[in-house]
Amino acid sequence: MVKKTTYLLLIFFLFNFHLSSVYAQDSLHLLNNNARQSHYLKPTALIVPGTFLIYSGLKPFIDAIPKLDNKIMSSVRENYPDFHTNAADYLMWMPTASLYAMDALKVKTKHNFKEHLILDAGSILITGGLGYGMRIISKKMKVYNAEDTKFPSGHAANAFRGAEILHQELKEQHPILSYSGYVVATGVGILRIYNKNHLFTEVLAGAGLGIISTKLTYWVFDKVNFAKREKPNNLF
């Protein structure tokens, strides 16, 4: 049952990220800077992460959602009671670490090393801030405290945050390679469930949070850069 669930989760994640990429691509390579700034937050680019967050947010209102959480967790506990690994603690950093390795190897990406540092740090701050707010809110809701876990999954949020950065940086020059971070991030989410650290909705919420936070970071970054370029020179 758990193996089947794992395969289904993997297929679910990869299929949704494929759809996200298809919808989020600019059909004609956006014609101007203003359009280029806004495409990160287009409705079509937010379909997948938004779906993850909405699904998780509906947990107090739809009985089937917590029931599925409990069913998956019960199955894991029954079939893998002694399973434990710390691999997710390291794997969640792999997508961003891979990006810095590419910088060292001079692999062409969308931004340079210094910009990667800014985008990485910015996305960490936004993900952490929003995640902290979500945890405060969820603590006050009984349905999110049925198990000794936390909503959302911080590991999943960080892994998918890095995966989205890697995708944004490589999708133009190395489109196939750009998906590799999602595979690693999905593995992190599955390991958190197998470790009995998080419920399915907590992993989904973390994934949605990480992706949206990164898109927001890129949007702000481009806005700031565009404002600097458009600032008129001092004529006096």
Description:
This protein has 236 residues and is mainly α. The chain has one domain. It is 69% helix and 0% strand. The chain contains 10 helices and no strands. The chain has helices at 2-24, 33-38, 47-57, 64-79, 87-91, 94-104, 113-139, 154-170, 180-194, 200-230. Helix 8 (154-170) crosses helix 10 (200-230). The radius of gyration is 19 Å and the shape is globular. The termini are far apart. The relative contact order is 0.17. The model is unreliable at 4-35 (pLDDT under 50).
Compact overview of the structure:
It is built from ten helices and no strands. It is an all-alpha fold and 236 residues long.
Beta-strand residue fraction: under 5%
| Tally of discrete structural domains | 1
**Per the principal axes of the C-alpha atoms, what is the gross shape?**
globular
Radius of gyration, in angstroms, nearest whole number: 19 Å
* Termini gap: 73 Å
Helices and strands, in order, run as HHHHHHHHHH
Q: Could you tell me the number of beta strands?
A: 0
Helix content: 55-70%
The major sheet is characterized as: none
Number of helical stretches of at least 4 residues = 10
Average the pLDDT over all residues and give the rounded result.
Answer: 86
Could you say which structural class the secondary elements and strand pairing correspond to? mainly alpha
Low-confidence stretches: 4-35
